[in-house]
Design brief:
The protein has seven helices and 18 strands. The chain has about 290 residues and is an alpha+beta fold. A hairpin with a 7-residue loop joins strand 16 and strand 17. The chain is globular. Bound molecules: uridine-diphosphate-2(N-acetylglucosaminyl) butyric acid.
Length: about 290
């Protein structure tokens, strides 16, 4: 009997993941699961663990590159209208993992709550943003998180404090857990001023980065301590370098953009080539920021 028998309403076999990522590359997921509530999600995790089925959680696919062979396991997508709670109680904002982060940002601004405007233009679901401590030059999500609700590998639901999540630069210790939601603590602010700052940061970002219409997964590498990966890649002369349908963006060297002739392997080969070039020139080993499945 298959691990997912009886789950036909929420589990489909062989679903192309290209339809669910910003890169629009890569092969299928062996199974694609859309749980509708905590109990269904917990059931799926427990069954996968018992059957030795590998698991990944998909948000908006803004930071993921799926290999051309696809993912031989279960991909769990927490999608609205499930897992997208959004409630405001004073400065305390409770958000479900499946909520679209840009909408969370704009709704808090409209409610006169300050903080998230600094994270303008970062795509993803709340779960993905928490999981990788997303951020940019104006801040990171960790600064606003009080609690994170997670489903552990054992199928149990726990609430973790900010300290227990262990936020560091683009990293948390949530490996093996699935984020269900978070409580953010924001301070009062003037919606007009917050909107102006949101627009400024958004514009700044899109002046220096490839347009959102370009297919990419944001920055490919993490910034090494005290340095900029983009600047190192640029100084290594990599802007415009191509492998197949993948190109190092002429706008920002830490982005790899793709065209219709690309496959996932082109992106992987180009990022390996770029990492080698930076190592040869500067002796710095860049670490990937995007997740490869
Ligand atoms: N630079 C270059 N050449 C380039 C790119 C950048 O010389 O091709 C220089 C810039 O002129 C600047 C410095 O490098 O002096 C830093 O560049 P930038 O301000 O663009 O920021 P970044 O460190 O490259 C970070 C985040 C971005 C986020 C921006 C803006 C990381 C790895 N990247 O980029 O996040 O959008 O700040 O807030 O932390 C992402 O996470 O996917 C991402 C794109």
């Amino acid at each position: 009997m298959s691990w997912c028998s009886g789950l036909e309403a929420i589990c489909r076999p062989e679903v192309p993941l290209r339809d669910f990522t910003w890169y629009r590359l890569g092969g299928p997921a062996r199974w694609f699961v859309n749980p509708r509530n905590d109990a269904e999600l917990s059931d799926v995790v427990t069954r996968c663990n018992a059957a030795g089925v590998a698991l990944r959680v998909l948000g908006r696919g803004a930071n993921v590159l799926v290999r051309d062979s696809g993912f031989d396991g279960a991909v769990i997508a927490l999608r609205p209208p499930c897992f997208d709670e959004f409630t405001i109680d004073g400065g305390r904002v409770t958000v479900g993992a499946g909520a679209d982060f840009t909408k969370v940002v704009t709704r808090t601004i409209r409610a006169g709550l300050a903080g998230l405007e600094a994270l303008a233009g970062i795509p993803g679901t709340m779960g993905g943003i928490i999981r990788m401590n997303a951020g940019g030059r104006h801040g990171e999500i960790a600064s606003f998180v009080s609690e994170v609700r997670v489903l552990g590998a054992d199928g149990a639901i726990r609430t973790l404090t900010r300290e227990q999540v262990g936020f560091t630069y683009r990293h948390t210790n949530l490996d093996g857990c699935i984020v269900l939601g978070a409580v953010l603590t924001l301070s009062p602010g003037d919606p007009e001023a917050l909107t102006a700052r949101f627009r400024d940061i958004w514009n700044q970002k899109y002046r220096t980065q490839p347009p959102v219409s370009d297919r990419s997964a944001g920055c490919v590498f993490k910034n090494p301590p005290g340095q900029s990966a983009g600047a190192l890649l640029d100084q290594a002369g990599l802007k415009g370098r191509r492998v197949g349908g993948a190109t190092i963006s002429p706008r920002h060297a830490n982005f790899i953009v793709v065209d219709d002739s690309a496959c996932a392997q082109h992106v992987l080969d180009l990022s390996d080539l770029a990492r080698e070039a930076v190592f040869e020139k500067f002796g710095v080993r860049l670490e990937r920021e995007i997740e490869v499945w």
